[in-house]
Each structure stands twice: as C-alpha cells, then as structure tokens.
Design goal:
With about 625 residues, the chain is mainly alpha-helical. The chain contains 28 helices and 5 strands. It has a 3-stranded mixed β-sheet with strand order 1-2-3, covered by helices on one side. The relative contact order is 0.04.
Length: about 625
C-alpha cells in the first residue's frame, strides 16, 4: 500500500509535466502534400471532437506533424527489354503522412474514464491505413465566474443645454412699387431673351416670304394675262387712235377668254374620244338581250345602287340604256329607286365627264371578268345562296366535295355557314381540309357543275368515283388554312386535339408547312402573357379591333379584358366601321397580321407551333 502511494505521488508530477510540455518544431522540411494531409486530418479531428464532446467541455488544440514517407522507386518490370525506365528518379516522388499527433483540452468536470474512452475513440476514427494518429489531452484550468460577466456600463456623459438662439434681424421694408421700378425689372427680365425673340421673328418673316414666292413662282402675272388677252383679241400693237376710239368700250370690257391649259386640252380630247368609242359600243350592243358587256355593266351598277353613274350614263348616251334592264322582276325594287333618283337629281352634282369615263372603263373591265362563267358561278355562292342553302348543299355532297365547297365560300359567309353546320359535320369537314389544301381540276369542274345545277333547280350530278391510283393531294392550292381558322373557332379543344393527332399520323408525325397559316382565337390564350402582349404590339390596332369584332361575343369580351387598360380603350374605339364589307376587310387584314406575328415567334424559337396549334 505504501509503495502504491509512492508511485502515484511520482506519476502526478510527471503527468503535469507532460501536459505542460511544448511540442518541438520539426527539424526537417515538410513537403506541401504532407502539410495538406495534416490540415485535412486537423479538420477531421475538429469535426470528430465536436461530434463526440460538447464545445463547452472539450476544445481542440489542433494536430502536429510526426513523420512521413517518400516513395520514388518505379514498379518492377516482369518483361525485360520493353523500355521501362528503372532506378531512383525515373518516376516523380510521392509523399505520404504516416504519423501525427492531435491534442485537445477538457474541463476538470469530465471523468477520467470518459476522457480515456474519448481518446481511444478518436484514435480509432482518425487512424487509417499507414497513417497512425495519437491523441493527447490536457485539463483546462478553472476560472472565476466573474470573468464571464460583462463589466458595468459607464455613466452617460452630462449633456449641457444648447445656448438660446440669437434674435433674427428685422426684414427691411420693401421698396415702393413705381412705374420706373416696373420698367427696369421688365427690361432686366427680357434682355437675356431678346436674341432668340428677334431670331424667331426674322425666321417667321423669312418663311412667309419663301411660301409667298413659291406660290407665285411660275404663275402668270396680271400684265401677262392682259397681254395674252390682247394677243387673243388681235389688238396688240395698234395705233393710239384706235385705242382712244375704243376707250369708251374699254370702260365695260368683255370678259377675256380663258386659254385652256395643256391638262384641260388633254382631258377634253380624252372625253371626246371616250364618248365616241362608247357611243359606238352602245349602238352595236343588243341591249334587249341578257348578254353583252354593256348589259352586264348596267345591271351591276343597278344592283350596287350606283345611281349617280347610271344617271350620268343616261344623260350622256340617252334613255336607250334603260333597255338593258330586264323586266323579269329581279331588279324591280332597284329600278323604282333609280326612277326616284332621276326625278330629283341635279346634273351639276353628278361626276364630271372625265371622271365618269375613267370609272366607266374601270367598271367595264371588272364587269367583263365577273361575267365569265366560272367567276359567275363562284359569285353565286354569295349572291344566290344563303348560309342554310350552302349547308344543305354540303350535306348532299360527298364529304370531300362538301369540304371543298366550304373552302370556296367567300370569307364574309364562312362565319355564318360555320355556325350553321352541325358539330359532327364541322369535325368531318375540318378533317377533310386538314388532309390537303389542294383541289384538282376534276374536283373543281364537278363543284361548278353542282353549283350550276343547284342554281337552275336541277338534280345534282353524281360525284366522280376516285380511281385506285388517284393522288388526292394535287392540283392548285385553295385557302384551306383560312377555312380551318373559321371552323376551329367553333370546335372544342378536345376535338381539335383529336383532329391534329389524326393529321399527324397521316403525315408521319410532321406538320405540313401550310398549317402555319392556320390561326384561331384560342391560340392567343396559349401564349405566355408577356409574349402575347409583345406580339400584339406588333399588330396594327385597327386590324386587331376588326379581327376581334367578328369573333364570338363571349370570347371577345374575355380577350379585351386581358389587355392593358389603355389598349382596351383603343380597341373598343376602333371597332366602329362604315359598313359590314369594311369590317370584314379590316378583320381579314388583322387576321393576316396575327398569322405573320405568330410565324415570327415560331421562327425566333420563342414558342413551339405544335404546342399552340392543338
């Protein structure tokens, strides 16, 4: 027992000496890779210590270098003579940390058993492979509790009150306002501005002089007019006696004859020549028959209520033109209106002769084109068939020809026809139009035969049977994209998706290029808000207002409500049109601009056409 006490008394000073010993500085160079491994080991030690012991009880003191190994020998070759270099220096040396020591300090309250377990645990976690880590410990000296308390705050400095402000000086009384003072102040105020005021006055005078000179340049003066009048009268250069004799008559001189200008002479010659040509043409025309360019022109004017041109033609060529109007009752109402107009017309308000003959030539060419058989049959879709009649004709035709007939309907009638079609027939017509945007010569000829028979009230001719080897996607292009744009506005989203899916399957997963000309209202809502706003700024406001005015009223209100407030007011203000024809023309222009804007977005890669189409 006595020996045990002596050994403990000897071990305590040695333990204290070991704890207070200072780690010596390495006596040799430590390579950089070894130092990096040592720093990494120190970070691992800090993390492991913080994980196993709270920071209030244990504090890391870092890690120090002990030893390392350098390897510079190459691998031995098993096949001599293959050119492998051997011996020291043949490969770059490699340094490995093999021994290190890490220390930590702990509070006195930690038991020795826990400290020993922590040391062994840290050595086991940090020692890896050829690296041997030893862990040392030290006991922290206790301190007084007063050191951790903050010092008492110093008393605030004494603030002395500021001195009282000095009294403000009394303002001087204003000077007495007199005329001299007012003039002096006005002169001082205007003097810096005299330069630009004088320049403005001089510039205005110079502009007026230049305008007056430009308006007078090249015009005949009063003296020149008098000289021309004398030349025309043949009195220039006569004796003074003759002039004195004619003095009484000069007091009331007759009006000098106006010499016609070159333009007036040219216009007069044009009127004379045109009157001669048209007089001969009307004299040779058989006005009592339902044929001839003059008859068609007169009837077109009467249908369009061009009463001024008709009245001018009757005054120029005589009442023989009334024979051009048939008595079958087709134009009875228009003839009554023309008779009332002729009874009250003022000839002075009718177009001039030159203007009349120019319009006569233009309308004559237009009437000749419309009088051709194919144009007349196509025009009958607008003038002789209502929307219900067109729908009935589509239902009676085979599906392919019904879809082509819908594409041939004029734009102003497609909207009404699309609303009249049944939902199932809309889908079938759209499916046919998606398959091809071309119409062969045989298909066009059959449709004209159908329209001609329907106009005459005859049974429809049978449809030609397609040959097995016949190619459907051939012939001249027709506006299938425009017709589909009208149809898709009345087809639901799910049905549209199904139609485009089937179209993709028919075209092997590729949209035809002409699909890019299809545009229906819901495509706008598929664009991101910011992108849609930027795109609409590129579209003419009048065209946008016209296009939105022909859409469904509910969709129209939804579209306008999503615009900016200023743009909403602008669109509503531009939705006033002179006539239905003007509205449809502006709407078509707006549709074309929207198609171009969407194509630009697709070309720039900002949106995918397949995403907004379906």
């Amino acid at each position: 027992m006595r020996n045990l006490i002596s050994l403990l008394a000897l071990a305590l000073p040695l333990s204290a000496l070991a704890q207070t010993s200072v780690t010596p500085v390495p006596q040799k160079h430590i390579p950089s890779p070894v130092l990096m491994e040592l720093r990494a080991l120190e970070s691992q030690f800090d993390l492991a210590l913080a994980r196993d012991c709270a920071s209030e009880r244990c504090v890391s003191k870092g890690c120090v270098y002990r030893d390392h190994v350098v390897v510079d020998m190459p691998h031995s070759s098993s096949l001599p003579g293959l050119g492998h270099s051997e011996g020291p220096g043949s490969v770059p040396p490699q340094e490995y940390l093999t021994s290190a020591r890490c220390d930590f300090a702990h509070e006195k309250s930690v038991s020795s058993r826990d400290v020993q377990a922590l040391v062994r645990r840290l050595e086991q976690r940090l020692s890896k492979g050829w690296l041997q880590v030893t862990v040392g410990r030290q006991i922290l000296e206790p301190i007084s509790a007063s050191l951790s308390e903050p010092p008492e705050p110093a008393p605030p400095p004494r603030v002395e009150p500021p001195p009282a402000p000095a009294p403000a000086p009394q303002p001087e009384p204003p000077a007495r306002w007199e005329a001299g003072v007012a003039l002096r102040e006005l002169w001082v105020s205007l003097l810096p501005h005299f330069s630009w005021m004088i320049a403005l006055v001089m510039g205005t005078l110079a502009t007026l002089v230049i305008i007056w000179g430009l308006r007078r340049l090249g015009r005949e003066s009063i003296e020149e007019k008098a000289m021309l009048a004398q030349l025309a009268a043949g009195t220039l250069g006569k004796s003074d006696g003759a002039q004195e004799a004619a003095a009484p008559a000069a007091e009331n001189p007759p009006a000098a004859p106006q010499v016609p200008s070159a333009e007036e002479r040219e216009e007069s010659a044009f009127v004379t020549e045109q009157q001669r040509l048209w007089t001969d043409r009307i004299a040779q025309a058989e006005l009592g028959k339902d044929e001839g360019g003059v008859v068609e022109l007169m009837r077109e004017w009467l249908k369009a209520r061009e009463f001024e041109l008709l009245a001018k033609a009757i005054f120029v060529f005589g009442d023989r033109l009334s024979l051009a109007f048939s008595s079958d009752g087709e134009l009875a109402i228009r003839k009554v209106e023309l008779a009332e107009f002729l009874r009250n017309v003022d000839p002075e308000r009718l177009p001039s002769d030159a203007e009349f003959f120019r319009k006569l030539n233009q309308h004559s060419i237009s009437s000749s084109l419309l009088a051709q058989s194919d144009a007349e049959i196509y025009r009958s879709l607008r003038e002789e068939f209502g929307s219900v009649g067109v729908v009935q004709l589509i239902e009676k035709l085979p599906l392919r020809f019904g879809a082509l007939l819908f594409a041939l309907v004029p734009t102003d009638g497609q909207q009404e026809v699309a609303r009249t079609l049944s939902s199932e027939l809309r889908l079938r017509v759209a499916s046919q139009l998606l398959s091809s945007n071309r119409m062969s010569k045989e298909e066009r000829g059959y449709l004209f035969e159908v329209l001609d028979a329907a106009r005459a009230g005859l049974p429809l001719p049978p449809a030609p049977k397609p040959a097995p080897h016949d190619i459907l996607d051939r012939g001249r292009e027709l506006d299938a994209a425009g017709a589909l744009s009208v149809l898709f506005a009345h087809i639901g989203a799910e049905d549209r998706q199904s139609l485009f899916t089937n179209a993709l399957q028919r075209s092997n997963g590729v949209f035809p290029r002409w699909y890019e000309d299809i545009f229906y209202p819901d495509m706008l809502f598929k664009l991101p808000n910011e992108l849609r706003a930027d795109m609409l700024l590129e579209v003419d406001l009048k065209g946008l207002a016209g296009w939105s005015s022909v859409q469904n009223p509910e969709w129209q209100e939804s579209f306008i409500s999503r615009l900016a407030p200023t743009m909403q007011e602008a669109v509503r203000a531009n939705q006033a049109f002179v006539s239905r024809a003007d509205q449809l023309q502006v709407a078509q222009r707006g549709h074309n601009e929207l198609v171009s804007a969407v194509k630009k977005l697709v070309a720039r890669g900002k949106v995918s056409f397949s995403e907004i189409m379906a």
